[in-house]
Amino acid sequence: MTEPADPARSPRFAQIASFARLPYRPDLAGAGSAFVGIPWDDATSFRSGAREGPSAIRNHSRLLRTYHLFQKVYPFRVLETVDYGDIDPVPGFLDDTFRRIEEGMEPIFRAKVLPFIAGGDHSITLPVLRAQKAVTGRPVRLLHFDAHYDTWDHYWGDKRYTHGTWVRRAYEEGLIEPGHVFQVGIRSSLYSHEDVATNARYVDQTFTTEDLDREGPDAVAASLVKALGSGPTYVSVDIDVLDPGFAPGTGTPEPGGLTTRELFRILRPLHAVDIVGFDVVEVAPQYDHTGQVTALAAANILYEGLAAAARHRQDTA
């Protein structure tokens, strides 16, 4: 049984910073879920820095405890969670890095270990989904939290693989299931009105922040759970879905976002969904004037994902 280090014996500020002070184990023996870092940010379109995300998230996950009050579950115990370490990128070389991510993630999916991933910029989700499809042979349903569509075709002439194009590439490559692609938190300015119609070709329902204000997080969560159904679902959270007041440390901040509590209220009902992978991306701690609030939010978002998945496993056992 995996558990975080006991803070009554070892203070939280001591020892090497693994995720939630879980055992650091760069192998999958006995694991049911794994925290994985992917420190890559060469596919950003504005400010870089998300390569520092995994280490910051680990550092600020030390306060996480073993029991989730609202899901009524011991997530680390139910999922046998370990810190698997990082997948090493090749700085400056996107193709090589994507290949390393695919090769690094395939054994995790093959072992039926549930990955909880810290990026890195949002482009990392594409090779993760490639690895999932290569192992299982089937696409996933996608729940995408973000301030931005990420369905653009290219940047700077012919650059088709960036953190703003990954949803479109995943759709084109058959990695995500048509009819089951959903976005929450969209609010950024656009390049043109045509972006709205383009996004609708790849995304089945988009909940903007205006929709969230009108419907409320509980109603949005209920709609998502119903729409996602029982199929395998990948959850991807760009930290910029949160308002910069709650997550200033990110590369493309957009005012008017969700509060951390609103995001938690949408994530918690996902215990009814079959989560097969979960990531939090775009944490760039050097832009965080508080030094910690963004990474702290990201660590707790991952914990919410773990707790939802653990309760789902517990409820369906």
Description:
This protein has helices at residues 53-59, 75-79, 94-110, 125-136, 166-172, 194-202, 209-215, 217-228, 260-267, 293-316, and strands spanning 33-38, 81-86, 114-119, 140-145, 176-186, 205-208, 232-238, 274-281. It is α/β, with parallel strands linked by helices and 317 residues long. Strands 2-1-3-8-7-4-5-6 form an 8-stranded parallel sheet, with helices on both faces. Helix 6 (194-202) links the parallel strand 5 (176-186) and strand 6 (205-208). The relative contact order is 0.17.
Q: Which strand order does the major sheet show?
A: 2-1-3-8-7-4-5-6
Main beta sheet, described? 8 strands, parallel
What is the first-to-last residue Cα distance?
17 Å
Query: What is the H/E order?
Result: EHHEHEHEHEHEHHEHEH
Into which percent range does the helicity of residues fall?
25-40%
- Low-confidence parts, pLDDT < 50 over ≥5 residues? none
Give the strand content.
15-25%
CATH evolutionary superfamily: Ureohydrolase domain
Radius of gyration: 18 Å
Per DSSP E runs of 2 or more residues, the count of β-strands stands at: 8
- What kind of assembly state do the chains in view correspond to? single chain
Overall pLDDT, averaged?
Answer: 95
Number of helices: 10
CATH top level?
A: Alpha Beta
Shape: globular
CATH topology, what is it called? Arginase, Chain A
CATH architecture: 3-Layer(aba) Sandwich
Class per helix and strand makeup = alpha/beta
**Count of folded domains:** 1
Question: How do you describe this structure in short?
Answer:
With 317 residues, this protein is α/β, with parallel strands linked by helices.
